[in-house]
Amino acid sequence: MDPAERAQAARARVPRIDPYGFERPEDFDYEAYEEFFSTYLVILTKRAIKWSKLLKGSDRIRKSLTVKRYVRKGIPLEHRARVWMAMSGAQAQMDQNPGYYRRLLEGECSPSLEEAIRTDLNRTFPDNVRFRKTSEPCLQKTLYNVLLAYGLHNQGVGYCQGMNFIAGYLILITKNEEESFWLLDALVGRILPDYYSPAMLGLKTDQEVLAELVRMKLPAVAALMDGHGVLWTLLVSRWFICLFVDILPVETVLRIWDCLFNEGSKIIFRVALTLIKQHQEFILEAKSVPDICDKFKQITKGDFVTECHTFMQKIFSEPGSLSMTTITRLRESCRATLLTQG
Amino acid sequence: MAQAAGLSQISTTSGQPYVSKLVLLGSSSVGKTSLVLRYMKQDFSNVLPTVGCAFFTKVVDMGSSSLKLEIWDTAGQEKYHSVCHLYFRGANAALLVYDITRKDSFHKAQQWLEDLEKEFHPGEVVVMLVGNKTDLGEEREVTFQEGKEFAESKNLLFMETSAKLNYQVSEVFSTVAQELLQRAGDRGSSSQEGEAVVLNQEPAARHSQCCP
Fold it and tell me: Rab-GAP TBC domain: which residues (chain A) (predicted)?
């Protein structure tokens, strides 16, 4: 078969819609994907057996080194919702507050919050068949409920664009409105710093922290940024706000979230540093600000990020040591600097 | 604001196009990204809300000269207001976009103007007020006259557009580009003088050029 025929054949074998309901993009490389997936399937099967044994006979998942190792190698889709719920404390919250979610939705309404959420419903995953107005059931209503309940629950945050993408993924994985709500609460309320509060200080801080980490670990890239006066926020704000949704491939995002729920927000820095380090030479070719922006878009595409299993191994090896102590210290100093700048 | 430009950030060396930075500002869902995508890719589709900022470049060919636009498309949600301020830095032009079917978005555009006025000297930035979604004329809440009068009172350029129907989208960008080039010409770059643009026009007259 010639290359065109091989591509055609792969296209015929791989479904046009992925397991989560997303239509594959126009330029999707079916052949490369099929090649990756045939090896990944073996890993998935092996992990599924291991997880079944781990979960057998115990209805509680305790954090341990074994669990951490297992999570880093990926949680099988059939267990993902349950494990996320357990690790993040969302399950405990849900158990302690029976009926709370329903009461939020039945309680006082907030027209401005409802309007803000409604504006984004049609614009959340238009490429996902389950979020289409015509689909049955249509997940737009579920998404609306989860975001509305969350905005009423955490009024300091309300609704912030970006949360729609995160809640959307949670709904696709849990297929459960209330669980999605509690997982969103775990992320926004506990796991992430204040990314979504009105001043977005947590976001601004973490962007600066990443800049500092790059300065320490990849000084040539930092020098390039400084030389062109590029704001890190222009390049990476979406990475933090959307937790890589709509930036990296779906499967890769889910693997990252597995670790995020278990190990916390420093995983985001590991992913960001790995993307930058892996493509350091490529980034350094940039001659202008538009070049740099373009390169930062390109490094989130291609085989390196599609091959999620290898990618996840790399995020724990490539950036080198990254202790929580370092992150906490950098967060404190960056936050202090931002506050003095006003 | 449209007079006496001091485009200090615009730079050029012989043979290189001018480079200008243009920011799009406005409420959520007024069509900022749609305008950019229509202009860049001749495409209109259901775009995702912009989180943070997106960046595009395009060279605008103005006949005898050309201008490279760096287009910064920002998030519209109120939450991102403080983040958007970071993107102002060094802007040469701004599009204040509102949705003609939403009065609140028109008021928001006016607030953005106030923010710009705090950050820049009068005339430092070329500002165009853009009323988008003329395809939804039946639901119109802001009349053409209202938009035009406000723009004139503040010395802004003004246009109404439809990103969906591709109505006056490229005109928005080319008018701004022309204004930027003209101001660069006014500053005394002799090679630019008198080319491609009409000098010594009152702002009001320029408005009528770009309005239907």
Answer: 74-264
Q: Is B47 on the interface with A (CB under 8 A)?
A: yes
Does A35 touch chain B if contact means CB atoms closer than 8 Å? Answer: no
The span from the CA of A240 to the CA of A259, in Å, is 15
Cβ proximity of B95 and B115 under 8 Å? no
> Cβ separation of B82 and A293 shorter than 8 Å?
no
Closest by Cα among B3, B20, B27, B2 to B131: B27
| Candidate from B50, B77, B86 with C-beta closest to A160 | B77
| Residue reference for tokens 């109120």 | B78
What ipTM was estimated for this complex? Answer: 0.82
All residues at 6 or more sequence positions from A254 whose CB lies less than 8 Å from its CB, including other chains? A80, A169, A173
From the list B12, B73, B39, B48, the residue with the least C-alpha distance to B169 is B39
pTM: 0.88
A34 min Cα distance to partner chain B (Å): 28
In this model, does residue B111 exceed pLDDT 60? yes
Expressed in angstroms, the distance from the first to the final Cα of chain A is: 63
Distance, in Å, from the CA atom of B109 to the CA atom of B79, rounded to the nearest integer, reads: 15
pLDDT at B162: 98
Note if the bond before A137 is cis, omega within 30 degrees: yes
C-alpha distance from residue A251 to each of A130, A138, A258 (Å): 17, 22, 11
Closest-CA residue to A196 (of A145, A232, A231, A237)? A237
- Describe the strand order of the beta sheet including B53-62 as a list of residue ranges: B53-62, B65-74, B18-26, B93-99, B126-132, B157-160
Instruction: Choose among A36, A272, A244: nearest CA to B51.
Output: A244
